[in-house]
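Review box. Two proteins, two foldings.
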Amino acid sequence: MNVNIANNCKNPIVGLGIDIIDVRRVEFIYKKYGLNFCKKILGNNEYNEFMQRLNRNYLKSIKFIASRFSAKESFYKAIKIGMPTLSWHNIQIMNTSIGAPIMKLNSQLNDWFNQRYGNIHISISDESQFVITCVVIEKKY
């Protein structure tokens, strides 16, 4: 039996962004620029979470920065708009009570996004030296 998934899908995918980053590269940049780097990449809530993690575990805090950087890159790839057009602070990646990542867009980007797209799905995975993220954007109905 052949099934055409695209025809049976209520909300087809209109954007896909995938990014992988070497955690050592992020650590190098963090050591060079310190908290200024974090303030450039992270929104207020993300920055507060980073500082809490930094006080508990240095390596996990570096992976946190890497995951947020990579997720934002994946989002921009999925909507096909480059970084010069948008700011890192337009997006914050937070976690639900069970740890699932969710993407929060600032009001201006959220309005623009909701006029064009449906739901956002995000996945973040890390291994000792790498973080990989995937963002899927659904068509709006």
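Next protein.
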Amino acid sequence: MKKIVYLEPYFPKGQFILGIFVVLSLICFSSLYLIDLGTKTQDVRLANAQLRAQELAGFTEVDAVEIFNGQNSYTTVFAKDRALILNTQQEQVALVDLTQGASRQEAEALAAEAAGGAPIQASRLGYDQDKVVWEVRSGTNYYLIDFKDKKLIRKE
């Protein structure tokens, strides 16, 4: 009678480790690519906004470009004492004379008063419900300040 010999099952540890490494590398590099693609889209949007501001409002020098995300998304281009607000299709929504309304500092002061003295993280000029507004963020709250009337519209 023949003796039956049982062999230990073979598990290729090297191939397993290599496979895990390849899968993790693929996930990591795919994530980095998507992040890079997302930032390039925003950079293109900001560059296009600068060009549109030069075309529509004759801005020769741009001081800053901001993105306002309210009910809709708007891009605001600042130059000296004017600001141009563009919608997502890069169409002009408003051309604002910054000397004719609340300054950034005034809007932040109004929001800080409404927030009970809490520190202000950011403020952006934008467009909401057919009005030019300052959106001021303090903690997790957002305060919308009417640009022309210099009053608090609402807290979000």
